[in-house]
Specification:
Blueprint (H helix, E strand, L loop, with lengths): L4 H7 L6 E4 L3 E5 L9 E5 L11 H20 L6 E5 L15 E6 L18 H12 L12 H11 L11 H10 L9
Antiparallel strand pairs: 1-2, 2-3, 3-5, 4-5
The structure holds zinc ion (ZN).
Zinc ion (ZN) binds next to α1.
Amino acid sequence: MSDCVFCRIVAGDVESSRVHEEARVVAFMDIQPVNPGHVLVVPREHAASLAELDDRDAAAMMAAARRVAGALRRSGLRCDGVNLWLADGDAAGQDVFHVHLHVVPRFEGDGFALELPADVRVRDRPELDATAARIRSAFCAGKGHPVSDTCQRGVREVSDTSLRGVREVSETCQRQDRDLQGFSFGAQS
Ligand SMILES: [Zn+2]
């Protein structure tokens, strides 16, 4: 038996209060809600982190979270707004290492807040451009899909020369692009 509590919830081996189910995802109540109506959306397939998450499961999670948010607003529970929240990694506050998207109903004065650092400020364009370039260079040819070993090799090879080289698409990347086409975002029940 899996020692992942969310895998056990998905399998029905651990009690949960289910809200919604689809082919790829399950939604159930957070046992320690920020506000009444706080729901978690998880993929049925175990993935510890965003890096491990299948793109189709990621899409299914967002689509289901959007539907849960609509249901919350119509439910009669106090819900004047909604936050979607996903913590990836210890430093981000991830507690259960099976990817989960929080759907949190919000209302004025509910006491839930993200605190900004004291020195947060508008940055100048050269700094933003430099940071953006650094992130772009870490993408697989700027495509935004998961970076395979081949792609990472490619990125390392071009990163010493110039960013222009990053646009060169490896065979592996083109194959991944084809796989991602024809994706269905409809309800998968
Ligand atoms: Zn799991």
